[in-house]
Design goal:
heterodimer; A: 151 residues; mainly alpha; 3% strand; globular; B: mainly alpha; two-stranded antiparallel ribbon; 3 helices; CHCH (chain A); NADH-ubiquinone oxidoreductase (chain A); transport (chain A); electron transport (chain A)
Chain lengths: 151, 194
Amino acid sequence: MTTHREGIFIKGLWVEKGSMPEEVPAVPEVGCTSAPLLSMSYFFSAACKDYSEDFVLCKKESGDPRHCLKEGRRVTRCALDLIAKLKANCDETWTKHWECLDANNQRLQKCRPQERAFNECVFTKLGLSKSIPDSPEGQPQIHLKENPIFK
Amino acid sequence: MLLAHLPVITSMSQDLPPAGGFPETVHYKRYLPARGPSGAVMILGVLGIMVYGWNSLAKANAENRELRREAAWARIHLAPMLQAEADRDIVRRMQQVKAREAEIMKDVPDWSAGDLKAPVKGLGKYGVADPSQAESVYNTQRFVQPSFVFLPKEAEGESYSVLSPQWWRGSTMLTKNPPYHHREDFTKEHPLGK
């Protein structure tokens, strides 16, 4: 969905050595694997909401990948900033949570104790909290449920 | 007469209970003592078990739904970031492809490299063949993502390379021990090599 199609070559993978043109400002890749990204996903949405929405609206204007490079760089910079902050403030709890996710097939329900510690740390240090959109009203969100059936 | 040989019945004795009735010792009434809980209790019990089970199932389904929604939203929140990276990568790649194409087609006048929607000479409106017209093959205002990329034969000092399939295929079996018809020394006369 989010990535373009990988080139399919019978002989191997297409490696392009050339870099971006000079006039395009350089921005590093986020460079996290899927487990840390999944772990920080809700905080990323809370911290970088404006940039992400800008980017998505821009993508809606045109499907051309060249059209939204500027907005995309802003999203990436915001993500990098958040990752740096998490590393500085909640490195230990974050690492514990994503390592647990890695060990449990990335099922969030398997890592609730670690997640609780991580969420608490992020809330006290950075003021970000996890909230799942469109959760049923009148009951706690699934990550705050006291006695879950699946764990 | 035809019936003349049959005996003549003068009186009939009917089978009847003994005079004064049957004795008390003969039990002819049904005797089925109540065993176990009554039917109403059993129906209510089964109903209770069913209500409990269906209720548990409904709760589990609701929780499962929430877990799936949680995972889905985690991915949705990450989408802009992943898309931004993927866009930068594809822009970089297509720029290189365009530069290579421009180099190959430099002697052809009016060739716009890397432009799928470039007007084609001889193609008229509504698909008619008309040498005086030049229309794009795409009748759309939207961006068209290229489906095919031409990579010239790999050479030394080229700006791209093709990584060995070993990198993504993961198994060395087909590269180190290929089927006989893929081997270098395969010929029709000597299918198994000389």
